Amino acid sequence: MTRRDEIVAAARSWIGTPYRHQASLRGVGCDCLGLVRGVWRDVVGEEPEAPPPYTPDWAEANADEALLDAALRWFTPVAPGALAAGDLVVLRWRDGSPAKHLGIATSPTRMIHAHDGACVCEVHIGAAWRRRIAGVFAFPGV
C-alpha cells in the first residue's frame, strides 16, 4: 500500500463518525480538525502539537490564519492544481474570511470532511468547493 493509499484508507475509516466540536475520536465524534488529527495519528504518529481550545467562531473572532499557519508548519505545500489523493485541503467558507475548514482528498475530485450538523462523509469537490480552496498540502513523507 502506498503512503497516499494509507492516508485515504485512514480517512475513510472515519466515515460515519458524528460531528462533535473539538473532538477527535473515530466512531464517537470529531470536527474537521479532529478528523485530520486522527488521520495524522493513524498514519504519521503522535500529533506534533495540541490545538488550543477554540470556539465555533474562532476564525471570525480572531481574523487570523491559524489553520493555514499550522498546515505550513507540519505539511508540505502543493499547488492546488496538483491536488491528489491523500492531500490535506484547507478551505475558506467565504471569500476574504480566514480558512477554517479542512478535508482530506481521496482523489483529485473527492474529499472526506466533517462539518457541523452531519457526520464524516466523502463528497465531490465541485466548483463551489474548488472556489473555497485556500491551500493544499501533502502529509509528511508523501
Largest sheet, strands/sense/barrel: 6 strands, antiparallel
Going by CATH, the homologous superfamily would be endopeptidase domain like (from Nostoc punctiforme)
**Oligomeric state of the chains?**
single chain
Quickly give the structural class.
Answer: alpha+beta
Low-pLDDT parts are none
Helix count from the secondary structure assignment:
5
CATH architecture: Alpha-Beta Complex
CATH topology: endopeptidase fold (from Nostoc punctiforme)
Question: Could you tell me the number of beta strands?
Answer: 8
Estimate what percentage of residues fall within beta strands.
15-25%
SSE string: HEEHHHEEEEEHE
Count of domain modules: 1
Helix fraction, binned, reads 25-40%
Describe the overall structure:
The protein has one domain (3-138): Alpha-Beta Complex (endopeptidase fold (from Nostoc punctiforme)). The chain has 5 helices and 8 strands. The protein has helices at 3-12, 32-43, 58-62, 66-74, 127-132; strands at 24-25, 29-30, 76-78, 88-92, 99-107, 110-113, 121-124, 133-138. Strand 4 and strand 5 form a beta hairpin. The longest helix is centred in the N-terminal third of the chain and has 12 residues, at 32-43. The chain is globular, with a radius of gyration of 14 Å. 34% of the residues are buried.
